[in-house]
Amino acid sequence: MYASLKSIGAYVPSRILSNADLEKMVDTSDEWIEKRTGIKERRIASAEESTSDLGTKAAEIAIARSGIAKEEIDLIICATLSPDHLCMPSTACIIAAKLGITNVMAYDISAACSGFVYMLSMAKAYIESGMKKKILLVGAEKISSVVDYTDRGTCILFGDGAGAAIIGATDNKNEAIVDVHASADGNYADYLITPGCGSKYPCSQETLDERLNFIKMKGNDVYKVAVKTLTNDVVDILQSNGLEASQVDHFIPHQANFRIIDAVREKLNFPIEKTVLTVEKYGNTSAASIPMAINDAYETGRIHKGDLMLLDTFGGGFTWASALVRFGGN
Ligand code: COA
């Protein structure tokens, strides 16, 4: 029995934050942002919407497309760096309740932008071991809640959104998750971090005054490590599965920055036509980025059953992960 990605769904809030809007908030320009990142706009959730609301809407679409009844789901995992609540309950528990699913195992994982691919490795193991049969994975972020809109080095990059997938079992190898590689190096923790409001610097007037509850990033250093790691990751997973880049139908990288994606793509000789890009319209949506990109390719009719997708991601931790996935949906 193999694990299979049976369906995909995504949701973005309606409010658009354009580069022109950001020009009014910080010392930046549309031209600078587009040239350095390829981002034109991103979505921002309303004050009434939380991460679980975005995740629930994406999950409803993925469930409907899978053709299974929600009651069949026996595990819900949510990857997020912007949970509804800092400690508990998990966002996965809240999504389960909003979906009307009770009596189900549900928990969050913390792997920043690598969250969705990390979850794929867990789902693959649960299904192949027979422990679980129908798993809902949700990557959801109201990342605007932890972005400092006075810091031009970070606020231009991120956006809100959610993506979800149903992972089930198949005996058909041509519809299976082929392999997942996931790794981390905590020595880079300070490069991309929300320093405050955890146990190290608990929330206080001082941490808030110093804006330590927001994302801090060494952008240039992150950029260099990201290009190197994302490239090595792809070479590694293709080699260990005896595959050539030319056998991949869709390269679906983490949508952090067009320049990063393009540098990796060029090093690997992937044609741009095979590369899925959503960064221009959504920016970096962290754990939601990969499932949102799969969904975009699905909804535009690019992805078909059995197509080989190569996922490649990188994020705070540092964490990184890649996956070879044959699309198992219709
Ligand atoms: N608008 C205008 N100027 C800006 C700016 C902005 N939004 N942000 C930074 N600058 C300025 C800097 O202050 C610096 O000015 P200086 O030369 O006078 O000191 C100059 O632009 C160059 O800054 P630098 O940080 O070297 O730019 P860069 O080419 O590395 O681009 C990023 C900055 C953030 C776009 C880029 O480093 C990046 O994308 N890094 C990876 C971030 C990422 O993907 N993080 C998530 C990983 S999951």
Short description:
The chain has 330 residues and is α/β, with parallel strands linked by helices.
Description:
It is a single chain. With 330 residues, the protein is an alpha/beta fold. It has two domains: 2-172, Peroxisomal Thiolase, Chain A, domain 1, CATH 3.40.47; 177-326, Thiolase/Chalcone synthase (Peroxisomal Thiolase, Chain A, domain 1), CATH 3.40.47.10. It has eleven helices and 13 strands. Strands 1-7-6-4-5 form a five-stranded mixed β-sheet, with helices on both faces. A four-stranded mixed β-sheet has the order 8-13-12-11, sandwiched between helices. Strand 4, helix 4 and strand 5 (105-109) form a beta-alpha-beta unit. Helix 3 crosses helix 4 and helix 8 (219-240) runs parallel beside helix 9. The longest helix is centred in the C-terminal third of the chain and has 22 residues, at 219-240. The radius of gyration is 19 Å and the shape is globular. It starts with a strand and ends with a strand. The mean pLDDT is 97. The site of coenzyme A has 21 residues, from helix 2, helix 6, helix 8 and strand 12.
Please tag this protein with its features.
single chain; about 325 residues; alpha/beta; Peroxisomal Thiolase, Chain A, domain 1; 2 domains; 5-stranded mixed β-sheet; 4-stranded mixed β-sheet; binds coenzyme A
Note the beta-strand portion.
Answer: 15-25%
For the report, how would you describe the main beta sheet?
5 strands, mixed
Our Rg estimate from Cα atoms comes to 19 Å
Extended strand count: 13
Q: What small molecules accompany the polymer chains?
A: coenzyme A
Domain tally: 2
Largest beta sheet: what is the strand line-up? 1-7-6-4-5
- End-to-end separation in angstroms reads 19 Å
Helicity level:
25-40%
Q: Kindly identify the CATH topology of the largest domain.
A: Peroxisomal Thiolase, Chain A, domain 1
Strand pairing plus helix content: what structural class?
alpha/beta
Query: Shape, please?
Result: globular
Topology pattern, helix = H, strand = E: EEHHEHEHEHEHEEEHEHEHHHEE
CATH architecture type of the largest domain:
3-Layer(aba) Sandwich
Mean pLDDT, rounded to whole units?
97
- Poorly predicted parts: none
Summed up, the helix count is 11
CATH class of the largest domain, named Alpha Beta
Oligomer: single chain
* CATH homology superfamily of the largest domain: Thiolase/Chalcone synthase
